[in-house]
Amino acid sequence: MLRTAIKPRWLALLAAVVAVIVGFTILGLWQLDVATSSADREAAQTAQTRGVVALPEVARPHTELGADAVGRFVVARGRYDETKQILVLPRRLGDDVGMWVVTPLVVQDNGALLPVVRGFVTDPGRVPAPPDGPVTVTGMLAPGEGPPDRPVTLPAGQLPKVDLSLLVNRWPEDLYSGFVFATKEESASASSATGSAEAIRRVPPPQAGSTGVAWRNLAYALQWWLFAGFAVYMWWRMVGEDHRRTRGEGTSSDPGSPHDADAGPGQSAPPDASGESPATADRHAAKGR
């Protein structure tokens, strides 16, 4: 088997297989890193330990959030635009299944829209109105959520995710590339702010490092490694077939083989030293007599 494996053509194919293995291994490790997202979680955890900062210090409209901005607690001032309010569902809070109330805040500094998860409700018909007039919102900054795994059709004003690629089409104004989990609202209208707080439940911001493993990316990593293993298997199988074919050719029967001297039943006996078979020699002896 080893002699077959070291043939030039199989060694050349082995080199190609090794290159494939290295490439697939790297891709698998990359997907594994995405699945665990250790660096991102560490950066988010560090950001959460910092103090509250003004929104313009860490984020700008239509600009991707930096690693130091994700998970950062920010404060923003402006007015809520209730006409653009949406519900994101289904969501769970404790044992209850309901929806997030997401209202855009028209930021005072630049007029851009900042999606704010104001809270959680279980009845879409009883969503409280946001505070009137100027409001100061404090909360944790988060990147937009990706699209759902499967297409979902929902009524107008409802979305399955806080997907900024959808919101940018619904809201023509400048849009921040992230949203805020509101933890506190301060409004000039104290009664309005109090009423909203009583009718809506705050959504706790996600804790850094609590997201666990992205199982889909982990499956991709395992898939790449299985491809690498399959490449090795196919190479070994082709070498084995070549080895068996070579052995079959080497052990084929030879007409001049000495094994043919042992005549089996029904076969002629081999000739003697004179070149005649035993039967022919007997006939000659009979004629001589």
> How do the SSEs run, as a string of H and E?
HHHEEEEEEEHEHHH
Approximately what portion of the residues adopt beta-strand conformation?
15-25%
Which quaternary structure do these chains form?
single chain
Helical run tally: 7
Could you report the average pLDDT, rounded to the nearest whole number? 80
Q: How many β-strand stretches?
A: 8
- Unreliable stretches: 191-195, 252-266
Described by strand count, sense and barrel closure, the largest sheet is: 5 strands, mixed, barrel
Helix content: 25-40%
Q: Strand order within the widest sheet?
A: 2-4-5-8-6
Distance between the termini: 63 Å
Globular, elongated, flat, extended or rod-shaped: what is the shape? elongated
| Gyration radius, rounded | 39 Å
- Helix-strand category: alpha/beta
Structure description:
The protein is an alpha/beta fold. Helix content is 38%, strand content 20%. It contains seven helices and eight strands; from the N terminus they run H-H-H-E-E-E-E-E-E-E-H-E-H-H-H. The chain has helices at 2-5, 8-36, 38-49, 164-170, 190-199, 215-250, 278-288; strands at residues 53-54, 73-80, 86-93, 96-107, 113-121, 135-142, 158-159, 179-187. Strands 2-4-5-8-6 form a five-stranded mixed beta barrel. Strand 4 (96-107) and strand 5 form a beta hairpin. Helix 2 runs antiparallel to helix 6 (215-250). The protein starts with a helix and ends with a helix. Residues 191-195 and 252-266 have low confidence and may be disordered.
